[in-house]
Write a structure and sequence with these properties.
This protein has no helices and seven strands. The protein is an all-beta fold. The strands form two sheets. Strands 1-2-7-6 form a four-stranded antiparallel beta sheet, with no helix packed on it. It has a three-stranded antiparallel beta sheet with strand order 3-4-5, with no helix packed on it. The protein is rod-shaped, with a radius of gyration of 21 Å. The N and C termini lie far apart (81 Å).
Amino acid sequence: MSIVPSLFGGRRSNIFDPFSLDVWDPFKDFPISSSSGVSRETSALVNARVDWKETPEAHVFKADLPGIKKEEVKVEVEDGNILQITGQRNVEKEDKNDKWHRVERSSGKFTRRFRLPENAKMDHVKAAMENGVLTITVPKEEVKKPDVKSIEISG
């Protein structure tokens, strides 16, 4: 177990990004209770990896959710500009005759939240799930070009 946390974790994100609302718990790997009060059931939070790209037309989110059905995932808009993705990966049923050698897949609840900029059309959000990848598209408002009116100069 490493005492020094990985700040980037192989993700293509910036820790200084004001739009990201990720929760980082420095004590999550210690056998003591968490300082933030986040239970072990929410440990899958870290495993819900999300990419966010901005195109000229929309903000596009892609979340890897292998083994999760679309009925087990909720996509919500909160407070007008916060996109929230929640879900739950259930624990596999145990048979008392089974002998487990390794358990690496996480289970439990996960939540990811993203604060979107002002130009996001939150009432036109679309989501689709295909092959364990959740794709959320948030269209952007068109940038209005200012009306330019020529004024004749007299004199």
